[in-house]
Design goal:
This protein has helices at residues 2-25, 38-61, 67-74. By secondary structure, it is mainly α.
């Protein structure tokens, strides 16, 4: 189970690098610091919302666990 979590976290890190970090820090071809535009901010927010919705839908598909099992995991 922990390897699955590591893989998920590694995938999330890679997704974040491509969809959040890169658009915010991308340098233009001329080497100058790019201006952070509203379009870029909106693009990043949209990507985050889509990823959250994907995660939510995956959670709904997961089999339900008994309440005792959930409580034991939270300890």
């Amino acid at each position: 189970m922990s390897e699955q979590k590591v893989n998920y976290m590694a995938q999330l890190d890679a997704w974040s690098d491509v969809n959040v970090i890169a658009p915010l820090v991308y340098e233009g071809e001329d080497g100058q610091e790019p201006e952070l535009t509203q379009e870029t901010i909106d693009q990043v927010k949209k990507a985050i919302r889509e990823k959250n919705l994907e995660s939510f839908k995956n959670g709904l598909k997961a089999p339900r666990r008994p309440a005792a099992a959930v409580a034991a995991v939270r300890r």
